[in-house]
Amino acid sequence: MNIHRTNCTPTTEPERYFLPAEKLISGNPEQRLWSQYTDASGQFFAGVWESDPGAWRVRYTEEEHCRIVSGRSRLTAADGKVTEVGPGDEFVIARGFEGVWEVLERTRKTYVIYEARVDRGD
After folding, report:
1. What would the pLDDT profile of 79-110 be if each residue is shown by its tens digit?
2. Can you give the pTM of this predicted structure?
């Protein structure tokens, strides 16, 4: 099948996890992930992510398109630029982004991620 439907309100059980302590800045938010598509190369993904309030350090090695379904979050780049997002907001986080993701109100987003393979010259 070449068409894969995704749903921002999945009815299946999510993968539940907590972030490593070294990334945490505040709180200990439970995060939930509904992976809905992975391509054959393992480099392209789509699904739904949700997190309880808290803040943690991020460093993106991937390209990610997000659409906020519910809640509010704040992204603060390493240079101090702040971007607040809420329901209906769509944005791309580019590979190389470093900073802090802070969930102000439980946030749910749909995501599409492309993770390029890095040739390490092995």
Report:
1. 999 999 999 999 999 999 999 999 999 999 99
2. 0.92
> DSSP 3-state assignment of 23?
helix
Kindly give, in sequence order, each residue whose CB lies less than 8 Å from that of residue 91, ignoring residues fewer than 6 positions away: 65, 66, 83, 85
**How would CATH label the architecture of 15-114?**
Sandwich (2.60)
Task: Please state the separation of Cα 37 from the chain's center in Å.
Answer: 15
Domain ranges of the chain: 15-114
CB 27 within 8 A of CB 53: yes
Residue with tokens 């749910």: 108
Q: Sign of dihedral through CA atoms 10, 66, 119, 57?
A: negative
Alpha carbon distances (Å) from 43 to 1, 38, 46, 119: 19, 7, 10, 14
Question: What would the pLDDT profile of 20-40 be if each residue is shown by its tens digit?
Answer: 999 999 999 999 999 999 999
The DSSP 8-state label assigned to residue 39 in this structure reads: -
- 77: number of CA atoms within 13 Å, CB side? 10
